[in-house]
Each structure stands twice: as C-alpha cells, then as structure tokens.
Amino acid sequence: MSDETMQEELKKEQEWEDSVTQTEHEYGGSEIQVLEGLEAVRKRPGMYIGSTSSSGLHHLVYEIVDNAIDEALAGYCKHITVDILPGDVIKVTDDGRGVPVDIQPQTGRPALEVVYTVLHAGGKFGGGGYKVSGGLHGVGGSVVNALSEWMEVRVHKNGSIYEVKFSRGNMTQEMTVVGKTDRTGTEVVFKPDPEMFTDTTVYDYDILHTRMREEAFLNAGLHITITDQRGEEPVSDAMCYEGGIREFVTYLNTNKTPLHEQVIYMAGQKDDAMAEVAFQYNDSYNETILSFANNVHTPEGGMHEDGFKRALTNVLNAYGKKMKLLKDDDKVSGEDCREGLCCIISVKLTEAQFEGQTKAKLGNSEIRTLVNAVVTDKLTEFLEENPAIGKAILDKALTASRAREAARKARESVRRKTGLEGGQMPEKLQDCNERDPSLCEIYIVEGDSAGGSAIQGRDSRFQAILSMWGKMLNVEKARADKIYGNDKLYPMIVALGAGIGDEFDIEKLRYHKIIIMADADVDGAHIRTLLLTFFFRYMRPLIEKGYVYSAVPPLYKLTRGKTVRVAYSDPERDAISAEMRGDNPSVKIDISRFKGLGEMDPHELWETTMDPERRTLRRITLDDAVKADQIFTVLMGEEVEPRKEWIEKNAQYAVNIDI
C-alpha cells in the first residue's frame, strides 16, 4: 500500500494539462530535440523502468541481476551475489564469462564501455551471444548507468581485472587493467541518482529478497545470495533450489492443505523454445497461476497461460469421460478445473515478444502450441499412471461445477427477491449524477450513521455512497454461491456493475475510485481486510488498475476557543497542539479522539475525509501477488496455526489497538 494524497493527484493532473496546452510559437525543425547517448533515459526514465518511485528503484537491481542470470541460462554462471551496502549502494557479482573487453567493431571502443553507454548494445540482438534472455531487451546495463549517481564495473577475464567508471551515464574512467585474477565474472556497483529517484533511494531488503528467491526457483541449481550490510549486523539469505519450480509450488502452498502430496511436473522443448509447468491442487477455492517468460514475470499472462489452461481443461474432461467419472454430455469448465490450483509456468524462448514496455503479457503464439502439447501429453500420461490423484482432482472440479451452478441460481434468486433483475440499484446506494466512470467515485461506508453523514456531506455530482452494516462474509472460506446470497456483498457487486470472478468485466465498472471508508480502530481494520480479501479474490483487476483506495479519517479533534483543527496521527496531534499554544504553554487545548465516522457531522466528514482538495487517500497497490496471496491465506484462511505464528511475530508492530 502506498500513501497518495488527492492534492498530489490534482497537482499532477494540472501539470499534465499545462504540459499539453497548445504553445503559441510555430512548430518547426528547431523544436525537434535529439537526445544524445543516455540523455534520453534521464529525460524520460519512466519509459525504461516504469516509474521513478520505489518500484523503479528496485527495478535497477533486477536489470543487473537479469544480465547475470542470462549468463546462467547460457550455462556459464553458477553463483550470483547481491549486496546492499551502506548508503544504499548496490553490488551485484557473478561468476560468468565476464562482459567482453575486446574492441567492438562498429564503435572502435572496448565492448565493456559500449555495453554500459550505448542503448541497445549487448549480446541479445543476434550473433549467438545469448539464445534466450530477460532484462530490458538488452538495454538494462546502460539504463541503470544513466540513472545512477555513479557506477563502477569490474570484469574478471583473461587473467586480468578490467575496470571502468561512470557518473550519471558519462564515463569518468576509460577501461583500465587494475589487477590480476584467477577467476571470471562481472562485478557491478552503483548508487541510484537522487536527482532521478526523488521519492526514495532507500532499498527494501524484503522486496529484493522476494525477487531473488523467485529467480532462484526459476533457475534450478543456481545459487543466489543476498546480503544487507546497512545495519550493525548483516542480514543474509542464500538460496538454491535443485527442484526448481516444483519447490516454488511447494513454497506457495505452505499455508494450504494440498489435495495430493506430489507436485505434478512437466517439461518439453521444440527447436529453441522450452516450457516447464509444475502444479499442485489445494483445498482452497482460489486459483494461483504465476507465469514467466525468460524469467520475467508476466502478470497479465499471455500465450503460455492460454496453452496451459486449454490443455488442462481438455485433459481433465477427456480423462473424466474415459474413467466414467463424467457422463457423455457432461463437462467441467476451465474455471471449475482451476479451483484450488497452484501453478507455475516457465517458458524460455529465443525471440520473446512482450506486449508493452513492462512485459506484462507474452505474445508468441508458437509458445501456446508448445505448452498445450507438453501439458496434453504429459498430464494424460500422469493421470493414467496415478488414478487416485486424477480422481481427487476431477472430484474437486465437479464440486466446483456444482457450486458454480448453485451460484448462478443464487444470483438469479437474489435478483428476483430484491428486484434487481432490470438493473435497479440497491436501496443502500445513493448514486451520483455523473455517468462517466472515470469521473465517479464510490465510498463504501460501514454503518448507517456514518453513511448518513457521508450522504449529506458528499458532492453528489461525482460521489456515490454505499452504506454497509455489520461484518461481511469472509470470502477466503466461501465459494461464489455464498457470495451471491450474502446481503452485504451482493449489493456491492450490483453497484459496481462489473461482476465477479471469471465474469468480471472492468469495462462495465461504474466507478474508477472505490474508496473504503471505515473507522480508525480494530473493527474498521477488520472490515477493510474483509473487503480487500473480496476484491483480491474476486475482482483483482480493480487493485491491479489502481482503482481501490482506503480513506484516512482523522484521529483527533483539537479545540482552542473557536479554533478547531484535526490530526491524523499522534505526532501530528502533538505538533498541532504545540502550534495552537504558541508561546504560552499553559493554554489549554481540548483534545478529543474521534471514536468513529458516525460521530462526525456531515461538514466535518466532508472537510476531513471526502473533500478532494483536502482529504488523504491510500491507494491499494499489488506489488507482489505471491506475497499478497500468502498473507490473505494466513490471515483469512482456515488454518489457525499460521495465523497464530504471524500474530506472535508481528504483535510488536501493532499500534492504536483498542483497549
């Protein structure tokens, strides 16, 4: 989650509007800028690393590590170390062949200098340097250099150590031999440029550790060590998984009950393309499919996921009919087949075609054919050899199918009972006048009292209010048929208008800001968690698109005479209190804690929590789907022991606990 004030949003929108305002002078050749060298990267860094926020900062490390992993994919690298040094300096070392140091013919300069100073220079554009590769299409090293305050690269090769130094993309020391060596490999040390990363230049060890663990899973037998040397005592994790993606699946299912003990694994190859799939079913109602192409996570899937899903559905239906578990005219849908599935798909190919700069989706149609063929052949063979596992998987799919039919009937029944068949909105919804979803926002408010204040205090032009009451269903422990019959969740599904699960269509969404407004206490936190669990499991694109927010109501009201101020935290309360006292510390300031949103008058709620000019919102983001899945499973799932362990571990960080 990341704090994002609406004032900042409005400011950015205004800056954008100002930037596209028509200029008064003529548009001629003199207006065309030619950006030399790496200047283009510094001018538009978001084009190369997505953003200059925390995610972009961490992306710099991934790019350098990806280069080392490319060496591992080529069969030359066995160990990679990542060190976070004091001052948030990053050092990445590998034992690969080392970046070439001979003269690059096109430029007449050492290849080591060219790789880090010229865009689209690398061993990934043909010529046999690498068969497959991840990273930014070969521009990773130079992009990281451009966005670093300084960078030093040392290459161990040919018995010598070659060194080159840079500052903000410019070379400050040409390639120089600085010593002798008896090994090979590359060492890259860099410090992110605070001029580029204005939000933060501080690295989060957990984020980097998670990514490095993922890379170790995807590259069986590769040793990756990450160490944080910024504290008094170093923190270090060494990872190597001989079982590769099999162990990845086991790790993801740690807090779940597997339906079968054995992780099903399949692999195959055609020409230069290779695919491997590992999966295991658990007793949950949710599917987890993580796909990768050349070690790059593809969160929006693509052809490799399509090939797997088609094959899985076809194989299970064919197996069910062959074993007389399905009647001739019966079949289980793809959604039924994937309930409780935890799956990793990893493909490696020579010319990966990604959709978009961020590589969210794989577009190679030939990989769909390969994955489909591998899964069809190998899974059919596996099920015939393991009939008990096959029956358990098909039984789960059949149970899911019956639940899906029950959900359809429940949906129709609820519509009839509530009169919502003809598109009528729930009675608890006070809609806004605007009909353009991009301009509309809906507040989901707990309690009729707070809902009443919100309705009176809102700007009805673009703000809708949906009042809820009491605790809602924990969807982590329920199927869709229970959701449609739930008097808390179904009105929200209707109000948002986009459906749930496989039926979800974000194009039908009626509001592009969905704001959870709950009290700043334990009950409010529980309500937020229940809602976020629902959004994550059944409407995940809402979070992925950045449409879900949490309102931040004030905690305190401070009064001195007719002057009234509010504070959103204890430090802010103390600062405002001192400011209101001025030079007279004996002045009495009346400080009261807001017990709930329902206590606020409509104008107070508007001024503190709903006015776009003054409110503070937290945008709910999904930086790590694996971690999110695990935490929802721990906090909201059936297993008590993992939740107990999590509470014992994190109790020390709890604040504002109601007593």
Provide tags for this entry.
single chain, 659 residues, alpha+beta, Heat Shock Protein 90, Ribosomal Protein S5, domain 2, Rossmann fold, 3 domains, 37% helix, 22% strand, disordered N terminus
Strand order of the largest sheet: 8-7-6-9-3-2-10-11
Quaternary arrangement of the chains shown?
A: single chain
CATH C-level category of the largest domain: Alpha Beta
Q: What low-confidence regions span 5 or more consecutive residues with pLDDT below 50?
A: 1-10, 12-36, 124-128
Topology:
Layout: E1 2-5, H1 6-19, H2 39-43, H3 46-49, H4 54-73, E2 79-85, E3 89-94, E4 103-104, E5 109-110, H5 111-117, H6 140-146, E6 148-157, E7 160-167, E8 170-180, E9 185-192, H7 205-218, E10 223-228, E11 235-239, H8 245-252, E12 264-270, E13 273-281, E14 288-293, E15 296-297, H9 303-322, H10 334-337, E16 341-348, E17 354-355, E18 361-362, H11 365-385, H12 387-418, E19 429-430, E20 441-446, H13 448-457, E21 463-468, H14 480-484, H15 489-496, E22 513-517, H16 522-538, H17 540-544, E23 548-551, E24 556-560, E25 563-567, H18 570-581, E26 590-593, H19 602-610, E27 616-619, H20 625-636, H21 640-650
Parallel strand pairs: 2-10, 14-16, 20-21, 20-22, 22-23
Antiparallel strand pairs: 1-27, 2-3, 3-9, 4-5, 6-7, 6-9, 7-8, 10-11, 12-13, 13-16, 14-15, 17-18, 19-21, 23-27, 24-25, 24-26
